[in-house]
Amino acid sequence: MLKLIGQRLALGLLTLLAASVLIFAGTEVLPGDLASAILQNSATPENLAEIRKELGLERPAAVRYVEWLGGVVRGDFGHSLTNKRDVIDELAPRLKNTVFLAAYAALIAVPLAVILGLLAAIWQGGVYDRSINVFTLMTISVPEYFLGYLLIKYIAVELGWFPSLANVSPQTPLGDRIFLTFLPMLNLVLVVVAHMMRLTRASVLAIMASPYIEMAILKGLPKWRIVVQHAFPNALAPVINVIALNLAYLIVGVVIVENVFTYPGLGTLMVDRVSKHDVPMVQACGLIFAATFILLNMIADIGAIMSNPRLRHPR
Amino acid sequence: MTELEYWTQQITQGRIGRRDFMGRAAALGVGTALASTLLAQAGMADEPQKGGTLRLGMAGGSTTDSLDVTTYTDSVALQVGFSLMNSLIENGADNKPVAKLAESWEAKPGAAEWVFNLRKGVTFHNGKTLDADDVVYSLNLHRGESKSGAAGPMKSITDIKKIDANQIQVTLSSGDADLPYVMSDYHLLIVPNGFKDWAKPIGTGAFMLEAWDPGVRAVVKHNPNFWMQGRGNLDAVETTVINDTNARMNALVTGQVDVIHRVDKKTIGLLKKAPNLEIVQAPGGWHTILSMFTDTPPFDNADVRLALKYGIDREKVLQALFAGYGSVGNDHPIPRGDPFYNSELPQTKYDPDKAAFHMKKAAGTAPIVLSASDAAFGGAVDMATLFQATAAKAGVNIVVKKEPADGFWNNVWLKAPFVTSYWAGRPAATQMLGVAYKGGADWNDTHWNRPEFDKLLADARAELDESKRKAYIWEMQKELHENGGALIPVFSDWVDAHSNKVGGHTPHNGFDMDNGLVAEKAWLKA
Fold first, then answer.
1. What confidence tens digit (pLDDT) does each residue in B183-207 have?
2. Residue B257 · residue B58 · CB < 8 Å
3. Does the ipTM exceed 0.90?
């Protein structure tokens, strides 16, 4: 068991290293350079050269990669090229916001999706099953920003229940924070619930066809007990995987929702810096996103193994 | 200036109160109604009230913004900068230079030597009294090897020196009667001598910095020692960066902010319907441009340039892209609101016959490639496509080449011979003509190198007599209109909106948000 976790960890680190190379190469091939991106059309050859010199952009890419990686290992992501602030200092509050919103949405979405999925499996083919399927399919098919604008139009503008602007600051108390981020949270929940709910339902139903379930039915157990006690634990592995994927999405894929609700998260920061060619910041964001994916997938793998006695006790 | 105009100016600058003004007006035989109208025009409809927190929702902010005055490129940093610090001169409501930290100024004949008299008794946020050393230091931040956005306009300055504690002398390499406008630039803000801590700028402005989170928000608090009467009435100003247009409009509609700018012109009708919201609209110098290199075939042929100028339907562009919030351009960069706007030039209109005639005369048949990108301005590609369609009717074959937004200013602008671009306008006509149409200028995006033109420009700059200047500037506009490589289809208006409890936020030709001075000028109705 421990050996297995160790293996997964080592593999994860290797993947992360590969990702760091890709991220670095990706930021290098962007057209244009930082200096001209900063100055836009107020660039003159003189002030361009001035800025390039100041930022050390003339040195070769390989040298800068090795230096950067060395720093990252020591926990130093360097300084932002655009405003010279420490990358970690600038990133931390944003990461906190992103994780807060992701956790807020996940706390509601995951139990909701699993319960809705189990209910759909219990009442398979019924009115509830069909209507929840249609509804979640709708919310997942509509582009997320459109969903966001609909929420703003009806809940913020017409009903006035929740604000359309999630402008939190580090000083915002928790209660206000929950209130201010309600609409973006709802938007994210609507986007991720469908996937998890449908997969819960599908994997439970797949198990429902197995002989031991037939046995349980013949024994005369009520349907809900069969689903919750016998089918669901065996359907956990795929469900855990899809939950992990959706959690990763909640952290790395929410830039559009951040934009619609003006939420200061990591996605907006990264997009901002990509357009400004702020290489250290983009790399740090990219690395965090890659690490999130790798970590969550690793946890899902381990979780799936734990949920399966045959894998838990290999011969 | 008549006496009434004089008093109107006095009140707008806060030197006299509303009651004083009414009294003076009555003494001049002006009725209360007319006097009120005059005040309304001057943006002084009501008496400013003290207190309250104004919430601004602004685009043009980025996580890379800094409050370092040399780095300002967009609205948010500029607006926050203006709330903390002051310039020597303000570009006034009527687009005329108005005294700010400089109390008065004077040019020697030829306009190459200037003396600025500084206001006495002004203190910085840290208690230091403003003197000539501070001003010399602050202006020098933008000279020489500086990366400042104001380095260009400052280039003609050869020397800035202190005469005494309250007087400085500025020497130029050649005369420039519009130097006061240069001094109103948003980069040229005054900080104490030797000041470097741009994380928390110290200025003489109406507000002091409370919180600054780049690309997210800024909070400034009232400066109790602010020197200017009638300005700086608010307790605090909170700026929230809202780059998404819909989010910005919604924030105003739901009352989460009091003022926004860059109103979406396509959905402005929705704002107009709301009873508690008001639109603040000003005709500005911001213009779209299709710039042709006048030294590169086929654009070196004047007939090709004319064919293109007649081949675009300016009215349609204005309606389709700007919902009519602007005015059609006449292929020179001077806006209608400018005192030196040439009002006697015939307006070039869409005329397929004339376009076809000039194209035939040029004997050009090869397709003309127009490099377009929305990085130039939102809607640039649509404009290019519209142009392509109207020009095709005249037999002028335009191919729209879509360029990637990333790297547009570096790889396409000033490199491709025919591109979509924009100019934000300059406070003075000679500045705009100098920055983009002077032979050899860095940003001469039409490769317009005409010695006669440059001479007219130099003469206009060195001339202090208004009527003579006007003749020169009119001539330059005529030359560009008839011959130049700039196809300027439309000028766009600045469109802000605010809740009706906001007072003192007035239209300004220079830029939106009251030329960036909204924090200092606005106040809240109780």
1. 999 999 999 999 999 999 999 999 9
2. no
3. no
